[in-house]
Every structure is written in C-alpha cells, then in structure tokens.
Amino acid sequence: MNQKQQRAIISLFTARSWAARLSAILILALAAFTWWNQNQVSPGQLTKGSSISGRVVGVADGDTITVLDADKKQYKLRLAYIDAPEKAMPFGQAAKSNLSDLVFEQQVTAQIDDVDRYGRGVARINKAEQDINLAQVNAGYAWHYTTYAKRTQSSSDFSRYADAQQRAQAQRNGLWQDTNPTPPWDWRKANR
Predict the structure, then answer these.
(1) Residue of 7, 86, 160, 192 marked catalytic
(2) Cβ atoms within 10 A of the Cβ of 143, count?
(3) How far apart are CA 25 and CA 51, in angstroms?
C-alpha cells in the first residue's frame, strides 16, 4: 500500500467534509480495481515456449478458443499456422461449429508459439495426440496460413498442413465447396 492510499484510508475515517471522504473512497476504489486486475491472468502473460493444459470452455470462431486450466485461469488462444473464415464470412459459422465439435468441453494441451497483438496465445492445440489445428485444415474449414507458417513452422509440419489443404481442396471439403473462396486476410483487409 502506498502513501497516497494510506492517506486515503485515514481521510476516510477522519475527514470532516463529505467531499474529502468521497475523494478517499474514489482513491481506494481505484486501488482495489488496479489490484484486482493485476491478479487476473490474461493471455498476454503467456510466453513463447510455454505450455498449458485445460478444458475448452469457449469457441469464438474457427481458429480461437478459450481454455480453463486446473487453477481456474482462462486463456484465449489463437490456433497457430491456420486462418479460418471470420464468423460473418461464408463458412464462418461452419468453421466455428467444426472446431467446437472437436474440442468444446474437452481436455486439450496448448503449446504456445507466440503471443499476438491482441494478447492471445498463438498455440498448437492437441487433444489425445490429435493435432486440432491440422484437423481444421483437413476438414476444409481453415487455410494453411503460409505467410506466418513459413517463418515459424517446422518443415515437416509445413508439408503436412500444405498437403492437408490440397486434399481438402481436391475433395471440395468445407469452404472449398466454393470455387474461389475469399481468404480471411483478404476479407479483413476489405472490411476495415
């Protein structure tokens, strides 16, 4: 507790005017709010190379989940190496539904490769030895995000993901039912 907060507590009980007491209450409320937020775990506190395990409690879209660990801390995670259609895009809801079928209320392990500009952990998600990121590509509900993957993905994984996308396209799975689907990065750029 700093001196300003100590003075606020003293003023709260000793001040003669209500204005001084209200000011003290405001200072203490701000201190409590700051303390509470410092103790909350945010995805931005994840570090590259770390690992978390937990139950998936939320699926935001076809490439973003929320994991609750054993300590009841939540982590918002973006699936690495893939990019799924946004919810408002064709196949966006189907991509979310497919990911939900794969992991919602399931135990997963996440290997954190990076933390993105939105504070989400960028992670490789595994459920019982199944690569969930790759499963989204296999099902045709995500693109292999090669722009990012070229820099960070192992060459063997890069090949597996590229092959999975080619198979999904050839079989016209998921979003590949469209003859020329718009990649989400192009859609986001056009809709800024």
Answers:
(1) 86
(2) 23
(3) 41
Residue 159: both structure tokens together: 């090949």
Q: Does residue 49 come out as left (phi exceeding 0), alpha (psi in the -120 to 50 range) or beta?
A: left
Residue where the block lists tokens 């990911």: 99
- pTM of the complete model: 0.74
Smallest CA-to-CA distance from 185 within 65, 85, 114 is with 85
- What are 127's strand-pairing partners? 130
pLDDT in tens, 138-187: 999 999 999 888 888 999 999 999 999 999 999 999 999 998 999 999 99
Annotated catalytic residue within 21, 78, 117, 192 = 78
Of 16, 120, 124, 188, the active-site residue reads 120
107, 53 in Cβ contact below 8 A?
A: yes
Residues linked to residue 181 through DSSP beta bridges, in sequence order: none
Q: Which residue has tokens 């016209």?
A: 172
Active site residue 78: yes
